[in-house]
Write a structure and sequence with these properties.
The longest helix has 29 residues. Strand 5, helix 6 and strand 6 form a beta-alpha-beta unit. The protein starts with 9 loop residues before the first strand and ends in a 5-residue tail after the last helix. It has a 7-stranded parallel β-sheet with strand order 3-2-1-4-5-6-7, sandwiched between helices. The chain has about 250 residues and is an alpha/beta fold. It has a single domain, classed as Rossmann fold. Helix 3 packs parallel to helix 5. The chain binds NADP nicotinamide-adenine-dinucleotide phosphate. NADP nicotinamide-adenine-dinucleotide phosphate binds next to helix 1.
């Protein structure tokens, strides 16, 4: 339950090894969040982050299995998690894969995997979690979208369209939750230097997981519906969205 100062006391991270997600929950722990649930595919790879969160001051850190692609299990996952841990103040929806556009656009199965993980999986689990948040009467769903979803690029349209779908879904979900005590914060980072982008040349306005986390935690505190990281990308994409197609399709990877 959120404390008297409005600070979250418990958080669930979907994508329990996500660098951005872990940076967010670490900052929440620094502000007094005592319970963190890491949900992901590989318990062994979540053990190190769990220990780090305990060292940072979390009283309870638990690891639970979660696979974005196992859509049939999402309702049961949400029910079991909320039944076991009680109120969850913040749920961070961070699981995602970048894929490889060059090969994915010729491989329907690989492309569908990106779409299933990033869009269908995250949308379905968000619904399952939102129902439980609605029932508890408060909470914030933090959805990791991307500026890549603002307008799909020739060089990144499989991933970009998955984020466009998730972003639109999260906006609609937030509207549907109005008045329930539950709100959605959509996060639209640009290029984040880290595991997902390793080996790639940083794009302009590149940022870090810690900078994203700082912006997200501030966004949660002020009840923001959308957070761009860095903030200048809001204005960059306000222009980019209206570039003529002939120009837009030449924007490099
Ligand atoms: N990095 C960027 O430049 C950037 C920019 C904008 C938005 N984002 C978005 O921010 C989110 C977090 O990204 P990140 O930088 O933290 O990436 P990351 O460190 O690579 O984390 C991705 C997370 O997704 C999990 N995941 C992938 N497929 C899954 C599945 N089928 N089931 C459950 N979990 C799955 C991974 O788990 P495993 O350990 O099991 O693989 C990992 O926990 C993603 O949604 C990403 O699209 C990232």
């Amino acid at each position: 339950m959120i404390d008297a100062l409005g600070r979250p006391q418990s958080a669930l991270l979907l994508g329990g090894t996500s660098e951005i997600g872990l940076a967010i929950v670490t900052q929440l722990v620094g502000k007094g969040c005592g319970t963190v649930v890491l949900a992901g595919r590989d318990p062994e790879r979540m053990a190190g982050p769990a220990a780090a969160l305990r060292a940072a001051g979390a009283k309870t850190v638990e690891i639970v299995p979660f696979d974005a692609e196992a859509i049939d299990s999402h309702a049961a996952f949400a029910a079991e998690t909320f039944d076991r841990f009680g109120d969850l103040d913040v749920v961070v929806v961070a699981a995602g894969i970048l894929g490889n556009q060059a090969t994915d656009e010729h491989d329907p199965v690989a492309a569908a995997r990106v779409l299933t993980t990033n869009f269908t999986g995250m949308a379905a689990v968000s619904l399952a979690v939102a129902d439980r948040l609605r029932r508890q009467g408060h909470g914030r769903l933090v959805v990791l979208s991307s500026v890549a979803g603002e307008r799909a690029r020739r060089a990144n349209f499989v991933y970009g369209s998955s984020k466009a779908g998730l972003d639109a879904f999260a906006q609609g979900l937030d509207d549907s939750l109005a008045g329930s005590g539950v709100r959605v914060t959509i996060v639209r980072p640009g290029f984040v230097v880290g595991r997902m982008t390793s080996g790639m040349d940083p794009a302009p306005f590149a940022t870090t997981p810690e900078e994203v986390a700082t912006a997200v935690v501030r966004g949660i505190e002020r009840g923001a519906a959308v957070v761009y990281v860095p903030p200048v990308l809001r204005w960059v994409f306000a222009v980019m969205r209206h570039l003529p197609r002939a120009l837009w399709r030449r924007v490099p990877g």
